[in-house]
Fold Taurine ABC transporter permease.
Amino acid sequence: MATKWEEVPMSDQSRSNGFAGSLGNIFGAGPVQPGESYGAPGSGRSLSISVVTAVLILGLWWVASNYEWVKPLFLPTPQSVFHRFITISQEPFSGGTLWDHTSQSLMRVFSAFFLACITAIPVGLAMGINRIARGIFDPPIEFYRPIPPLAYLPLTIIWLGIDESQKISLIFLAIFAPMALAARAGVRSVQIEQIHAAYSMGASRMQVIWHIIFKAALPEILTGMRIGIGFGWTTLVAAEMVAAQVGLGHMVLDAAEFLVTEVVFMGIIVIGAIAYIFDLMMRLVEKKLVPWKGR
């Protein structure tokens, strides 16, 4: 009998160790790299956790909506949202089909994003390299950066009217500041020893800027691009509030005005999916261009 009672705590301890080991596999650090004593924090794959999280969220949405824990006006069922997706893909809603709204919004956001890339990145690099450029650009950028786009939306209408240039300019202003500041922060990450070594080997100033400073700042620049495009999508709805005939933001606002919640959910999902796909593409670009990031 003594032997039997002594085996019970050992069995509980084994189960406890097994459960702790499972949690450790999920939330612990990634595999140890050669030369490291412990795994790097945050390393390892999280795809399975992300898939489980997405499935749980969708399952909770399905249960809460189909059992009417929340009224359909506030939380439509996934089936009704999917039905709206199919319907609006084929028939116009609020001035166009889903493709018409999506293509117009893509044009506005990525036009502003392209303009921000060719202006904000050079400005940010100049701010990090040259004190005169920093003195010129830092005050206006830091002044308008905290201001929400809705605050200067009326001013863009007064200055630019209600055509496409006004909408693209509003999104551009939302993207410009974080991208410029990210480029400026990237310049500070360059090691002064690398610059001294380049000059000692006969490099010119432009060669140092391109081969040393720009490459050292590239991880921060790519991060700023990811953050900037996120600001662009959040500003899209504000940009399409005034005199827009088509666009995802216009479609969502029009549906909300008439309490068509299924279309509101559908528009949010489409915007989120496009932004997420772009972010995944930017992560792949980061792995190709800056494989040393985080190492």
